[in-house]
Structures
1.
Amino acid sequence: MRLKDFSVLNPQYKGESLDCEVSFVPMESLRNGAIDYQDIPFAEGKGKYTYFQDGDLLVAKVTPCFENGNIAIANNMKQGVGFGSSEIFVLRMNDKVLNTYMFYITQTAKFQEGACATMCGVGGLKRISPLFMRTYELDIPSLSKQQRIVNYLDVKLGKIDARIAILEKQQDAYARLKKSVVHHAVTRGLNPNVSLKDSGVEWIGLIPEHWERFRLKDLGYTYSGLTGKSGDDFRCDDETKTKPYVPFTNVLNNTVVDNDSFNYVAMGDNEQQNQVKTGDLLFLMSSEDYESIAKPAVVLGNPGEVYLNSFCRGLRITNHNCYAPFLNYQLNSEMYRDALRFEARGFTRINIKIDRVASHFVSLPPFLEQQAIAAYLDEKCSRIDAATENIGKQIDALKRLKRALINEVVTGQRAV
């Protein structure tokens, strides 16, 4: 049977208008097997967003949300009615198929690989073809067998999910520990008995009495990124007019020196820019994500000839009393990050002006103490990161086990 033989794709609302709030599901609220509902007046949702009701299966249609498994059944909504992102497919089953059974079908490799093969679009926003959602073919067992499969998978997967939940709590605990270790080291140093003084900056508060307050512009100068047209195609054109640049994703991940990931940009004839150098701090100045704005990364290795992405700015440290790795830890600590983000502006795209970054306050100990703190944090954070990575591998293994179990049961390789 094809999907359209036992379901309706994106059904329309045919009831009466409601003078109340109903449930709302933006894309970020749709996850694998779960939905974080928000509220919206019915009048604001009808005709503007995708409609669904209790029992409907919601499937993210856009990459990477679909690949991340953002598929769930809508239940327990206000008035039994919901609206959501236009990037959501809605499947409403008839009496031949359980919605829970169809949820498990969407988790199989066959369905997911088939859906991904139909994706098309530009700008990274590729979408599943609606035709695929109507014509996907599958064998439908009896309702009693569907129920046995669902019951079996609910029990088995519930145990796996419980283990994943424990591991995720451990990950969260390590993340909080890392924040605490970094915060204490970059605001108080390593001496627990150090005397404190007022920093003169309200949000910084007290600092060790031998530390000094600076603005970033006191420590060096800022420079901008290339503004020309970019793309991998330029690598093979006239190399004298193209230059490699650091993608902003490298800045976000603090992997600045990674020549294999560098992209190329066409540089204007009169465009003069600073090359990225060892010891520079790089900042993301424009982002759709508020949490990423003004996030710094330090250049620790030798990147060779490379420039900045146009969304980024660099800080070239010229003050010999400033140790770049320490400064990077401090600016990445939660308190300093929050203060920088407070200076950002924007709605759909968040931006921060370079003068706001240059005027940002920091507090520095003597140079040798900065080195000692940075070395301490390198050692502590590497241990925490290793533990977190190990937990992540366990979670990934359990998620693979879930997918394998679903495939085996739904395809009949494992009898239930």
2.
Amino acid sequence: MENYLLFFCAYFIEAIILWQYAVTIFHPKYSTLTRITSLTTLYFTLSIIFALNLVSVNAIAFFAANFIFFYFMFYSGLFSALFHASLTTAILGFSELIVTSAIPNMMYNYYDATNFEQTFTVHMILSKFLYFILLFAISHFTTHRKENKQPNRKEILLILTIPLLSIWIAISIFMIYVDSLLPDYLCRMILISAFLLLIINIITWFIYTYTQRKNREFTTLQLQLQRELDATAYYQMLLKQDESQQILIHDIKKHLQSLSILNEQGQPDKIHAYIQQIINSSNLQVAARLCDNEMLNAILGRYSRRCMEEQIDFHADIRSGVVDFIKDEDMTSLFCNLLDNALEAATNYPHSYIELSVHNRPNTPLTIISMINSCRINPFDKNGQLHSRKADPLRHGFGMKSVERMVAKYNGEMTMYYKDEDYTFHTIIMLRDQEKIKQKMLP
């Protein structure tokens, strides 16, 4: 019975190492619970097959289990899944072979050894240490290469020193264990300590990977925020341009008077140059008036022109004064990200359209933002989660996170759903005007 528990323990460690390798290399298709259930089932089956004591069958089964996990649980192509399944299988065999060759006396007559429990535990811990180090190095160098950036060698070498030093500690402990006559309870304590040392290394890998992922997300989010601040500055510039346009239109009589004077003086060349200067002025470009909020009007004007270029029908119904409580930078973040996603989904789709309406619920501090846009493909996965259709989904999705951040900032709620009948994506957002809420609370 103890032997079977050791087998299960060995496969449990291998499953944890493979899990961390997979989440570092690939982007998951399904929820964490589904992937854990799948991996548990696969490796439990492997532990049963191991009892057959057939090396070739064990290797094939290990390869098949890894391939199934990579291919069905993550966004990986067929050949990519085959490659990484082959790689992990080869590295595991390579690790066990190195340990076996390094300590041949300990591994002599492996299955018939009277101290099988201790021998197997020593072999398992050392081989899994090596398996862990190799997969760690491969996964992180592969990930950095995929992202087209140089890995931080000092950082990776520093984190690799932990398992390397742990191997030295484990070997030292095992040498004391092998060469000394210790009581049984001390032997078991040594083996458990070595096993816990391996667990600590795996936890360190988890923490390091998690920290790296959060750092990347934070950096991307900061870039997103900077982009939104730049967009706010851009729209504020448009507002100033619109103000200049109004001034120019207001002063048009003066221009006409100047032209009249030049005409009376008989200077057609100066008249022509003057007229061309006014015609080519950007201030005379007509700006669409879609709502009474200057910032939102500038944003909608820009996306209206983009929709016209992409042959997308754009309709906006913005009631008066409904968004005045939203700050300019927040309005840029909210509406630009919503319209960016809608524009991307509706592009290259025949007879596509985007409908945006913003209104206030009477006698309440609630503002309702409703947007319907054409969308050829359902953006929700089987678990009801939105997923990006871009080439690298890990680098995207921050636009929607920014929208969620704005909804939370104004104590709002958001609902999204897809209608297969007419291929449309619906977004409904409710925001609360805190000033109105405070006014209602006053006596």
